[in-house]
């Protein structure tokens, strides 16, 4: 189990979770049973099955919403959520993922190997700068500088090598 992540929900300091909190990478839910106060789950990871209980399950399967759909959820699109992403090459001394809320969405940052990091702002398409003279990079950096933790993490390394933009509708399924 990996507990190396920060969660920042409008707090001045990050919440560094302690066990039994955890983040499992490359894991798959193989069985799920809803009980009155929690979930009984079997998790397949590295060819083995682990049984445990959880008070919360985060469906991180993106548009597929695999867990939510398996529980009967109906997906409805209300807006066009996108991510504005930057990659940074160079030394990566902080190996934790970080999630931080923002007025216009939320931020996610994580290491991508020993010498690369990703940092993204997830927001609504209609909040992006528009027009011939709009500067997406400047807009992104301005919003990054408004964060409590990410600005320090990336400012220390003079980050933001590449910012990409891909905008398109999220189909309702």
Describe this structure in words.
- The protein has two domains: 17-70, no CATH class; 81-164, 2-Layer Sandwich (D-Amino Acid Oxidase, Chain A, domain 2), CATH 3.30.9.
- The chain has a six-stranded mixed sheet, with helices on one face. A three-stranded antiparallel sheet has the order 2-3-4, with no helix packed on it.
- 12% of the residues lie in helices and 34% in strands.
- It contains three helices and nine strands.
- A hairpin with a 4-residue loop joins β7 and β8 (116-124).
- The chain has 173 residues and is mainly beta.
- It has helices spanning 66-70, 136-144, 150-155; strands spanning 5-8, 28-34, 39-45, 48-54, 81-89, 97-102, 105-111, 116-124, 162-164.
- The longest helix has 9 residues, at 136-144.
């Amino acid at each position: 189990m990996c507990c190396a992540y920060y969660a920042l929900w409008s707090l001045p300091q990050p919440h560094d979770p302690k066990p039994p909190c955890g983040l499992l990478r490359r894991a798959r839910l193989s069985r799920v049973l809803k009980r009155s106060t929690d979930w009984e789950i079997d998790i397949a990871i590295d060819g083995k099955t682990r049984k445990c209980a959880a008070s919360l399950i985060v469906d991180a399967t993106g548009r597929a919403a695999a867990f939510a759909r398996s529980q009967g959820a109906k997906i409805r699109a209300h807006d066009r959520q996108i991510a504005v992403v930057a990659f940074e090459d160079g030394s990566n001394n902080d190996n934790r993922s970080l999630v931080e809320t923002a007025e216009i969405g939320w931020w996610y940052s994580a290491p991508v190997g020993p010498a690369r990091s990703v940092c993204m702002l997830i927001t609504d398409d209609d909040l992006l700068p528009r027009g011939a003279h709009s500067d997406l990079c400047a807009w992104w950096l301005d919003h990054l500088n408004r964060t409590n933790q990410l600005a320090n993490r990336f400012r220390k390394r003079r980050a933001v090598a590449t910012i990409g933009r891909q905008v398109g509708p999220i189909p309702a399924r």
